[in-house]
Amino acid sequence: MERVRGFFRKTNQELSHRFYTIYKQVEENQGKQLEEDEKQEEEEDPAAFIMNMELRTTNQKGQKQGESGRQNLTPKIITHFILINLFVFTVAFLLAYFAFRDSCHSCKDSVSEVSDELGYDLNPDTSGSNLYWADLREMFHKYLGEEQLKNSIRSISLMDRFSGSPGMTTLSHQIRDMFSQQKLDHVWMDTHYVGLQFPDPMRPNTLHWVDESGNVLGELHLEDPDVYCPYSAQGSAIGGLIYANYGRLKDMEALQEKNLDPKGHLLLVRIGHVSFAEKVSNAEAFGALGVLIYPDPADIQPDPHRKLRLSDHTAVYGHVHLGTGDPYTPGFPSFNQTQFPPVESSGLPSIPVQPISANITAQLLGKLSGPRAPQEWKGTLSDTPYRLGPGPTLRLAVNNHQTSTPIISIFGCIDGHSEPDHYIVIGAQRDAWGPGAAKSAVGTAILLELVRIFSTMVRNGFQPRRSLLFVSWDGGDFGNVGVTEWLEGYLTMLHLKAAVYVSLDNAVLGDDQFHVKTSPLLTSLIESILKQVDSPNYSGQTLYDQVVVPGQNWKAEVIQPLPMDSSAYSFTAFGGVPAIEFSFIEEGPAYPFLNTKEDTYKNLHGALQGRLPAVTRTMAMVVGQLLIRLSHDHLLPLDFGCYGDVILKHIGRLNEFSGDLKARGLTLQWIYSARGDYIRSAEKLQKEIHSSEETNERLIRMYNVRIMRVEFYFLSQYVSPAIYPFRHIFLGQGDHTLRALLEHLQLLRGKKAGAGSLTYSRSHFEEGLFRRQLALLTWTVQGAANALSGDVWNID
């Protein structure tokens, strides 16, 4: 654009010079003597020259002579001037057009634009980068190194960074300084005061054998009293012990079928399949009095040839809040100046919970009687019969206490040059219980490296179209508290600003398999990215080649739904922002040291057979290329049409009950119609985009605004975020979701809800409730279709 402006400036100067030359010729023909007199007077006294010129204008004789001379020459001069002007302007316009067109083709984000939102104007002098996608990819590859990642992971994992600790405060300021040193456009810190739960050093949690009268017979010494479950209920529980496998709903139902009712007992459950919080929630729903959670070697020990084994004396940390964020200010941000009445999240358990080691578990299982556990329930604890119980009576006492704790999240931003108010957010959990090498050190190291590389790229010519917002979160080990509190604070505007969220948590837990947990909108983009990144395991292959299994759907093998314990889940299910999380994992049993004091750099490096830096670099390469595409592409590369297939998949399950509904005078026709409207709206938008001019910046921005808000459209507008924080109808939790509707329909045939249900407590089908569920669900889908259509006069 500067070349065009310079060309026009030069052209204007040449035209002015030509006009001046013609004018001088006219003056010469009017009389040389008059010109010489004027020149002499100008040289002697410029002021006198001006006065004499004014006097001459009143001289009738001179005026007549001037008019006579000009009347003879004016027609020729004007004609001459117009022809020259038209010729030069035409040549200038053509040259400027081709120069401008070439500039647009070389970089499609170089044109200034005006926002479609009130009060927003771009800088008219904005100019874009002339770098191609291949140039940017090569630049990123050039600046990315393994050694810096390796050193960062090692140094971070050696630091004390438990939320609220002095070490965490020190690290927070260090990361803020690192952001500032990279000369980002904006760097700031965000502090929230949240309710966290910690063990009481004066009154540690205990586990005792007791008789039927509650008298203590002996103590089972907890081998690591520092390990606890945040948000467990305080107090004690006394009851006989029952082994409940993974603590899933179907495990509870299996116990009932064997005449072993969890009600009134303590439950012993193993880690895996569902989160700690879900295990406890299920146990409480079936009337259990307390829960003990242990790591079975069958679930967490990796390949024995790698000689890495979790100690039998180690317990595993995990919170038990069935939700995210501060459970004492549900739905609201925990700012220090905000005064809310006492309230608690409905996801807080009312029974005590304690993690224990495999060693203590073996002692407990050895005391159990009753039927033997099914074969698939048996782990690999040696000399353990794995009977179901009940066994001797135990007393579990939990004395954790709540503390108002400041947590600090650090933000750094690189401004976009065309859509600076649209953000690609990249975040990593900074806190950890224990060394946390895999838990958070790897993600934090990748985050710092991305900040360094993109800052360097900007200094070398890269100008992202959209802003890049890098965030180091605090409070992740307590249920993504830092993430959720920030989302709650900006919920009303987040969907207007955040285009995509990329999580770096749990990025490297192995090197065998590559998994992606994502919103459906990003699936197609990920496929193209994986085809551009080399595999860390197989020379000459891309990551796509590594993950694709011949004859199988690669998406079914690689793409997974977002889990509730992921920060990406909070962004999508709560904030309505498409999100993604990547993980390298082990094939078979998971990395055994996660959430333990043994999650050290040495153990993680050993689990990857010394290849931790190489695998981490590959992960950084995947994320880096994703960020380049999301921040640089003229049009946001999100597959907004994919939700038509998602809805169809769920409708297929609803169709199984069409006969039962018809017998009750009910129909699913309106949900079918809403799905059809959404598909037509997506197809229409796609055609509009294909037929539009890419150089029309205002139009492209309007398309981007509609695309980036698609995820938000699927947040139910008919429920309160304070009561149902996860309002997403496909990924959320509550009666407004498609899953809840399906579970309700199962009651038509007398079936109980499946694992993970939130509606299993109902015993019969309620027609009034179903009608409300179906109506609100239908209008959420219909609202998404209407919003995707664009202007209200385009909605059919």
Automatic annotation (TrEMBL):
Gene3D superfamilies xref list: 3.50.30.30, Transferrin receptor-like, dimerisation domain (1.20.930.40), Zn peptidases (3.40.630.10)
Sequence intervals crossing the membrane: 77-100
CDD domains: M28_TfR, PA_TfR
Keyword Isomerase attached: no
GO cellular component: cytoplasmic vesicle; external side of plasma membrane; HFE-transferrin receptor complex
Keywords: Cell membrane, Disulfide bond, Glycoprotein, Membrane, Receptor, Signal-anchor, Transmembrane, Transmembrane helix
Location of the PA domain: 244-306
MF GO annotations: co-receptor binding; transferrin receptor activity
GO BP terms: cellular response to iron ion; endocytic iron import into cell; multicellular organismal-level iron ion homeostasis; positive regulation of endocytosis; positive regulation of peptide hormone secretion; positive regulation of protein maturation; positive regulation of transcription by RNA polymerase II; transferrin transport
Pfam families: PA, Peptidase_M28
Membrane-related topology note: Single-pass type II membrane protein
Annotated family: Belongs to the peptidase M28 family. M28B subfamily.
PANTHER family: N-ACETYLATED-ALPHA-LINKED ACIDIC DIPEPTIDASE, TRANSFERRIN RECEPTOR PROTEIN 2
Protein name: Transferrin receptor protein 2
